[in-house]
Amino acid sequence: MASEIAVLGGGCFWCLEAVYQQVKGIDAVESGYTGGTVVNPNYEQVCAGQTGHAEVVKLSFDPQTISYREILEIFFTIHDPTTLNRQGNDIGTQYRSVIYYQNELQRDTAKHIIAEMALVWDAPIVTELSPAQPYYKAEDYHQNYFQQHPFQGYCAFVVAPKLAKLREVFAGKSKPE
Description:
This protein is of the alpha+beta class. 35% of the residues lie in helices and 23% in strands. It contains six helices and eight strands, in the order E-H-E-H-E-H-E-E-E-H-E-E-H-H. It has a six-stranded mixed sheet with strand order 7-6-1-3-2-8, covered by helices on one side. A hairpin with a 2-residue loop joins strand 4 and strand 5 (90-91). The two termini are 27 Å apart.
């Protein structure tokens, strides 16, 4: 079976990228931008809130190894889907919680997971569910960011705990260290 694509936004793309790079069945992870109005936006434009884009990760995955549902279960575990346009100190629409579905099956799966998560979280889920939109790869220096800068402050204090949570909650789904 061919690889499938998932596109998710849940705060800074460095966090999601680092986590999904450690998940069995994820063949490739790329940081990028989608959901906005500017063609080929750059990081400075997106961070300034000038484009409407979200920071996202584009995942290529093997559905024989990991299901889209499992990808979303990880997604809802490693970020807070109840905070509108923010994750921790990252504030702005570019950090919104959003799922860009690629087809109707992904849309339906996401709807079910969001309904299930509404029973788990104490506050309402604000995760957007939108059809796939033009996607733009982020600048090269954003790719594999955590792997290249594990001791940088943000990575050490924000990204690393998300990786620890992945290993704790989804031990059977994470790649060996």
